[in-house]
Amino acid sequence: MYFNELNLHPSLLRGITERGYTEMTAVQEQTLSQTLLGKDAAVQSQTGTGKTAAFLVTIFERMLGRATPQRKRALIIVPTRELAVQIEGEARLLSRHLDFTVGCFFGGVGYPGQLALLKKGVDLAVGTPGRLLDLSERGHLRLKEVGWLVIDEADRLFDMGFLPDIKRLLAGMAPPSARQSMLFSATLNRVSRRIAAEYLNHPAFIELTPEQLTVDTITQRLYHVKSHIKANLLLGILHQQKPRNALIFTNMRHSAARLAKKLELNGFRARHLSGDLPQSQRLRIIDDFMAGKFSFLVATDVAARGLHIDDLEMVINYDLPQDIENYVHRIGRTARAGNSGQAISFACERFGKHLDDIESFIAMKIPVETAAASLFATDNGLEHELKMRAHRRPQNSGSPQRNSGRNQRPGMRWERKPLTSPA
Ligand code: ADP
Ligand code: MG
Question: Is 49 in the pocket of ligand 1 (CB under 6 A)?
Answer without folding.
Answer: yes
